Amino acid sequence: MSEKGALLGVAEPQRPGISRCQRFRRNAVVFLFYALSGLTVIQLIYMARNHIRPTAIRPVGPAVPSSSEDICMTPACVHAASEILYNLSPNYKDIDPCTDFEELVCGGWRERHDLRPDQGDAFTGTTMSENSQQLLRHILAGPYPNASHHSSFSPMRLAATSKSADEANFEKLAAAYDACLDEKTIEKLDTVPLTAILNQIIMTFPLEEPKSINTLAETVLLLAQYGVSALISPSADADDTDPDVVVVKVFPPWTFGLPAQERYEDDALVAKYKDVVAETLGQLMPDQTRDVLDAVVDFEKKLAAASPNVADRLDVTKTYNPMSLKEASDLTPKIDLSRIISALGNGQEVNRLIVASPKYMKDLQSILDETDRRVLQSYFLWKAVQAFYQYVSSPLLKPYKRFENVLAGKAPESEPERWRTCVNHVDDGLGWILSRFFVEKAFSADAKKFGDQIVSDIKDLFVQKLKNADWMDDKTTSKAIEKVHNIIQKIGYPTESPNIMDPESLAAFYRTVNISPDTYFANALQMSSFAVTDEWSALGKPVDRNRWGMSVPTVNAYYNPPGNEIVFPAGIMQFPVFDVDVPAYLSYGAFGSVAGHELSHAFDSTGRHYDQNGNLTDWWTNTTVKAFEERAECFVDQYANFSIPGPDGKRLHVNGKLTLGENIADAGGLSASFQAWKIRAKEKANAHLPGLSNFSQEQLFFVSYANWWCGTSTLDTAINRIYMDPHAPKWARVLGTMANSREFRESFECKSEEPTCALW
Predict the structure, then answer these.
(1) Residue limits of the Peptidase M13 C-terminal domain (predicted)?
(2) Cα separation, 373 vs 378, whole angstroms
């Protein structure tokens, strides 16, 4: 499914965080040191920094009491406080929070977080993901955790009848992991499994086209069944105007070779890309000629130019174009859309589909008409290489791996540690089984209860925000409030479709995925094909609203407009974003703002088009729409002022239109979470953290928010994200959101308490 409104976006796959029991063990040493010496680590850090002049940070709100009874000294609180202090800029007291809050909060984070050669960027969420990767690594490399090894919280509560299915599921995970780790076998196979796919393409799309079959359609279909988008990207998903019905959608591919449409305008980069295509595919298939391989890149460039820009791709009012199958097929008759959809849908009758870009489909026909068949064959071969090169170990693929690394801002020869690749591989292909073991180690009933409370608090608060939005008329406000009440919140992990607590349910879900401990490439194909079959099996059935779009270890969250649901996997509900054992302002500041962010998506530039039942319809009055657009334009202009160095040395500005929905959600989410926490704090006072007497609790709420976005990036990665990511750079998300927060400006006594832009 498409996670519209995802907190991080598709460009940033993230995975889960560290368990509380691990954290407690790690901090036991810290606590023992405190007990013996009478000094906390926090106090030592503070004394080491006491040469810094006290200037910009002014405590506002409840002062930190002298009595130690109101200061939380548990290991969890000591750990949380130390993280904040380590992340602060070394000269944080000299920095005005009202002008550079991101540097104040994150300067220390950057000093102690260098990027590895295999990383293009990293942020707090990356650290959370890598902590959980370690946890998952230990699970996958260890023995089956039988009943005697279960933690006090086990979602399984395993019965004797289900243990065998659970162990079989675990063995499937372990086999996939072991096959990925077996680099000797992978190296011995060299390019043999990839060459088999390439030969299959040549057989399906020979240079001499037989009259009896549309080989173009058959080749697009062949690749689509492996999960590879070539020429078009068909999918089965909820119909936006009838969200309980599954419909076929046809989009242009998200990318065509280079990571963004704009990168094809860089002549020097295109020339390097041509060299890499010629060297790589030329060695794999020696009969390929240089002129044809150069033409493949030119072909990609034409496809990219014909496709809509990223902002238009994400605009549902432009991509929702219902057509009959015949009308859609007539746009690009060369492809034979009917054949492709019929095969993917296992013969399900399809009379209506959604074409995201009719213009692209029409232009595609013209491009195909003028393209030599040899170029098309080489194009399909190159799509397969791009899709499957990561599963092959061969010197022949080194040129492309180096090129991809440089393009992503990584060191040319770098590769992640093998076990990291393999944990991700298992999560991608068998994510729900892995989720079952992750939840047992890294989540608790208390965590789920606290997460539900935060989300419910923010929903209640957002109702008040809607009532106070004087730019909305009464009719629209009433329907918007109903929409909030209808929002489904999914916290932690799924208990249906599949139920990860039930081994039999998991076994049935993955029954067709055959995994061997020594066939890594074949396993990858099995996983990809299963994902495609699973998606298209929904055709002809009602939408399954119990399905989740992210596995449980994922460090991310999303709002799904047709489902009118907000989803928070357990992976994002980890330290330092979320913790039941620390003062609530930290969890409300980080996780609460994430929850508010996702809920705000229900009323952003995309979400506002969907009503309380998830139907795409115009339910806002014209007066309210006009008032919204006037306020939204402020966000567009504000974020367009943020920039980075571009590939040509000129400043490359953030696309305020592309990032509009996320920027609105950041502002609305932060405000809603702050106000929700303040209401809770009146019911139950929060303790203070040790060593942070320079900050009030209100200020620490915002420090916790900004800590989540502390990060660093290489220039190449930053450039690609400007072009493709609907999220602003993380530093800009801090600065822009703080500028738009009245509560922040009041808490830090800024000269002007008026927000730059405001909606909710």
Answers:
(1) 556-755
(2) 9
String of DSSP letters for 653-713: E--TTTTHHHHHHHHHHHHHHHHHHHHHHHHSPPPBPTT-TTS-HHHHHHHHHHHHT-EEE
Strands 242-251 and 352-355 turn out to be parallel
Average pLDDT, the chain: 91
Question: 191-392 has which fold?
Answer: Neutral endopeptidase; domain 2 (1.10.1380)
Question: Is 250 in a helix, a strand, or coil?
Answer: strand
What does the angle CA 459 – CA 460 – CA 465 come to, to the nearest 5 degrees?
Answer: 90
Classify strands 352-355 and 121-123 as parallel, antiparallel or unpaired: unpaired
pLDDT at 66: 43
Least confident stretch, 19-23, 267-271, 487-491, 606-610: 19-23
For residue 344, CA distances in Å to 227, 248, 349 come to 11, 10, 11
Place of tokens 């998830």: 614
CA distance 401 to 118: 12
Q: Are 672 and 686 a contacting pair, CB within 8 Å?
A: no
Q: Which residues contact 246 (CB under 8 A, 6 or more apart)?
A: 236, 237, 238, 239, 538, 539, 540, 541, 542, 543
Q: What is the CA radius of gyration of the chain?
A: 27
pLDDT tens digit string along 530-565?
Answer: 999 999 999 999 999 999 999 999 999 999 999 999
C-alpha to C-alpha distance for 119 and 558, rounded to whole angstroms: 24
Q: Confidence band (pLDDT; 50, 70, 90) for 9?
A: low
CA angle in degrees (0–180, nearest 5) for 351-355-358: 125
Q: Which residues pair with 245 in a beta bridge?
A: 542
Q: Compute the average pLDDT of residues 91-100.
A: 97
Q: Is the pTM of this model over 0.85?
A: yes
Spatial contact of 101 and 702, defined as CB atoms under 8 Å apart = yes
Instruction: List C-alpha distances in Å: 550 to 9, 227, 309, 598.
Output: 12, 17, 26, 14
Reduced to 3 states, what is the DSSP secondary structure of residue 384?
helix
Report residue 538: phi and psi, to 5°.
Answer: -75, -15
| pLDDT 10s digits, 418-477 | 999 999 999 999 999 999 999 999 999 999 999 999 999 999 999 999 999 999 999 999
Tell me the C-alpha to C-alpha distance, in Å, between residue 634 and each of 630, 661, 734: 7, 12, 17
Rounded to whole angstroms, the Cα distance separating 673 from 596 reads: 6
Pick the CATH number of 1-112+443-494+548-760 from 3.40.50.11010, 2.60.120.10, 3.40.228.10, 3.40.390.10: 3.40.390.10
- The string of pLDDT tens digits covering residues 289-299 is 999 999 999 99
